[in-house]
Amino acid sequence: MIEDSYFAPDYDGARETFLQAAELARLDVATSVHPLQGPAGQALATDTLRIGPADAETLLVLTSGMHGPELMCGSGCQVAALTEGWFERLPEGVAVLMVHAINPWGAAHVRRNNEDNVDLCRNFIDFSDPPAVNSRYEEVHAAFTCPERRGPARDAALAVLRDYRRVHGPGGYGTALMTGQYAHPDGISFGGRGPTWSNRLMTGLVQEHGRGAKRVALVDYHSGLGPWSHGSAVCMYEGERLERAHRWYGPWIWAPRVDVRNAPEECYDVTGHSSDGYDRMLPGVDVTAMVLEYGTRPSTTVFDIMLDDHWLTFFGDRETDEGRAIKAQLLDAFYPDDAEWRWSIVSRARQVVRQAMAGLRAVPAL
């Protein structure tokens, strides 16, 4: 399949493929070097490119790698767009911004979070007014962060989690695990104590390129949630903005803030989501943000692997057979090595880009 050539199984390969595609398309790339290095001592960077006029009033932003190993999926979508020439004939007054590997450390180290154990999709809050303590998370923090992977302590921790899930249901368990917390830097779904390097970079890029725009659509490529190979639209909106998203992307949108009936039990409202951050980055601009979430393994499998990787980060050793096995499982949870899966990813990405471009043309100027 030609789509296979768009993808790579690691950060270095994904970056090389993206840069090659940009070069073949004769597009200039701006590079922001991360202060830390990759596992082999290699440089890490976020790469960006812009297609279209600098003074465009309409802007589409495509972002990959918000969660480290999810880069390999999103990068393939971006490379497909460049290779197939999706934006060779943009309408007048329209530009496209691609942000490749916004969390390069996580991508290179095969870690969903960043170098500070921050989940970037919990980091886009107003830190002058942080959210209240996540009381549900507090009940299970010790179990989530058990220092043993096996043995009596681990058995006891798993029993606590099973009981919590039985009492509160899958939704309550997922809320505790995924919605975000800001009290425990060593915990799950930690949102940080301030804007991260990636947050600051993304804010600067969106503000720089969105300056002068009246309409901005953003699509963040993610993976690890939903049915196998299906790209689900997820919107953190309600009211008129959610109605607009439905007009653009169709009736099947997961809107966890208002429509829990159509969202799966593992799709949660979260604090500090990038969609909320985009609104603050672009005051006075008509912003429509969505997450394109590609399904991989069952949610319970993905959750368990995330817990194993959390244990490995704080208590284990990556340079052991056990550590390497956990990293391989984590990569598989967000980027399965399956040609049909990759074909579906690109096919859905084409559709969503068409929908976003059509929607942007339909939005009246402010």
From TrEMBL:
Highest taxon, organism lineage: Bacteria
InterPro entries: DUF2817
Record protein name field: DUF2817 domain-containing protein
Organism of provenance: Rhizorhabdus wittichii
